[in-house]
Task: structure prediction
Amino acid sequence: MKIKMIGIDHIKASLEYREKVAFSNTRIVDFFKILKKDKNILGCVILSTCNRTEIWINYEETLINEIDNILCDFKNIDLQQFKKYFVYREDKEAIEHLFMVTAGLKSKILGEEQIITQVKNAVDISRENNFLNTTLDILFRNAITASKKVKSQIKFNKGIFSVIDSVIKKLESININIKDKKCLVIGNGEMGRLASETFIKNGANVTMTLRQHHKGNVIIPVGINIANFLDRVKILPQFDIIICTTSTNRYMLKCEDVSKVDLKENTVFIDLAVPRDIDEKIFKIDGVFGFNIDDFEIDKNELENINENMEKAKAILNEYIQNFYKWYFNKDLISSIFNISQKAADDTIFRINKLVNNDTKNIVEKASKKSIEKLIFCLRDNMDNDDFKNFINILEKNYLSEDI
Result:
């Protein structure tokens, strides 16, 4: 099927390794430019989240260079050091993995809500950079549609957990109630907005940092106070909880800077960024609680009816996986189907040509063509692939090899 995936995720790799392979949107575009040099790579989608980085390609013939080599050169890391953390999947294994990931069934937070949006954003970046070919487009579209159906029909426990829900639960486990706490969120992307909204709903007083040149260009949740991003260290003493969620490749909070300000007693630092935003030396300052993304997850033993719900979810995904296979293994026949239906419609018009006027002929032609296409596609969906291909060959011989 010529579909490959190389990835690194929370199952095999710690944050230390995952952050070195993470991509910002800008770097994804730069990486696309390198991949496009290999004309055998027809399309690529890169999914980069706090839990995983996965590169999906559709290709033909033989690749000039394997993706792991290209990736390590691009990231300036040693392939031999990272190879044991990489996961390699091809064709059906890769496809089925994609559906599980998109539905949140391979996330640390089982059934998390953010992953569908992250996958959609990854597809959009590929499309905007003219690197989303038809096969990957239809594959990811099926995965997203299937995952939405899973979300609407399957509930893992009383609600679907997000990373931020897990953060709140973790704080409660160390007797920190966020109600009336002053919280600073550094980062105004999707995760920053979600954290802000969730903390406000739970009674916190939230301030979000904003770069001055971004004013008016970002979505600011209702009820949020705004602080200048450049003042982030200076204002730390005002807050009980600090959350970092940016997508930069450098520390937003350095230990040498933070150690110079007088923090509140029991200040909580939460780093939800990959790569990390907070120098973890800060976590060792007296009176500080510190967490990074790997500290948050849901104990699967706590989830109700987990095995039953997983099987229900997989059944939904399998329906859409099979839809993709039917399309993929018969995609070369699509033009033949349209040619046959057009020829059959022409045949119908030829036989009634002397009986009706032109307007009626046009209506009959369109109706005939659609009816025949519906019939043929119905047979495709209910026949063995080899039998269906033989069927198309017979129709082609009957309709396309002779003139009316």
Remarks:
- The chain has three domains: 3-153, 176-298, 333-399.
- The CA atoms of residues 345 and 365 lie 5 Å apart.
- The chain has 14 helices and ten strands.
- The chain has a mean pLDDT of 86.
